[in-house]
Specification:
By secondary structure, this protein is α/β, with parallel strands linked by helices. The protein contains ten helices and ten strands. The mean pLDDT is 92.
Length: 286
């Protein structure tokens, strides 16, 4: 069965819209700022989704485009936004130019405005079991899995991709549910062992960014498959998972229209959480 990510996102956004309307009623509008330093088609897709969602929710969304900046200048821009009390969330869009290291820039973010959960503080809090702002993509995958299979205890989960924004935080969320998690990466692939892990997975999540990496013979029959990859094939967007896998698995998320819309919803869920924290309003559930 193909998972309708747009429908899942719509239910999250409707609840968010009511909350944002309530907390914005005093005239203090919630604001998200997006920083782009190297244009890409994947970024433009994500940005359009962000802007459309911001308009729906009544959020002030502002984008800044920069080219040919040094890491020092980028750091100064981030620090100025940290100090701006009218900005409640900051997104650093990827990819960055080669000379600018994402880890160095993300660690300059005020963790209270780090709506993508990229900073060392937010990642550290997650690893300690005290999460504050967590990667929206990881939250989206976790939400989809809990919707499809509420009982994750003891499930064999394989994550393809060990990035700090998807694989690692998602593994932390799943471990807390007592799932048995294997995180694979480029070395697993190069050693020829990737299929050894994917075939045993009750739940398979691919976030490698490699077109048709996951084929039918690599998937356990009846598995749940989440495709997080974004690749370009003859002018259209495709994921990491081959279309033939759909006939073998129990559930699968499409690309586009699967994990993506839910990720955007959780980005704005994080934004509301950040806003409430900055205003000193606590004990508010998602």
């Amino acid at each position: 069965m193909i998972v309708d990510g747009k429908a899942l996102a719509a239910s999250i956004l409707e609840r968010l819209r009511r909350k944002i309307k309530y907390y914005s009623s005093s005239g203090d509008k919630i604001k998200l700022v997006s920083l782009n330093f190297k244009g890409s088609s994947a970024y433009l897709l994500y940005q359009r989704s962000q802007r459309k969602t911001a308009d729906y929710l009544g959020v002030d969304f502002q984008t800044f485009h920069y080219r040919n900046l040094t890491g020092k200048k980028v750091g100064k821009i981030v620090e100025e936004l940290n100090d701006n009390s009218h900005v409640h969330g900051i997104v650093i869009e990827l990819p960055l130019p080669p000379k600018i290291k994402f880890e160095l820039i993300s660690d300059l973010l005020d963790y209270r405005k780090d709506v993508e959960g990229a900073s060392v503080v937010n990642q550290g809090l997650l690893s300690l079991g005290r999460p504050f702002l967590v990667s929206p993509t990881a939250l989206a995958c976790f939400h989809i899995l809990k919707t499809l299979s509420p009982q994750l205890y003891g499930k064999n989960v394989t994550i393809v991709g060990a990035s700090s924004l998807v694989g690692k935080p998602l593994a932390q969320l799943l471990l807390k549910e007592m799932a048995t998690v294997s995180v694979t990466h480029i070395a697993t692939f190069k050693s020829g062992n990737l299929s050894r892990y994917t075939r045993q997975a009750d739940i398979l999540i691919s976030a490698a960014g490699k077109q048709e990496l996951i084929t039918k013979d690599m998937v356990k029959k009846g598995a749940v498959v989440l495709d997080v990859g974004i690749n370009h094939k003859r002018g259209r967007i495709v994921g990491d998972v081959s279309e033939e896998v759909r006939r073998k698995c129990r559930y699968i998320t499409p690309v586009p229209g699967g994990v993506g819309p839910v990720t955007t919803a959780f980005l704005f869920s994080n934004l509301l959480k950040a806003f409430l924290n900055q205003k000193g309003i606590s004990n508010v559930k998602r």
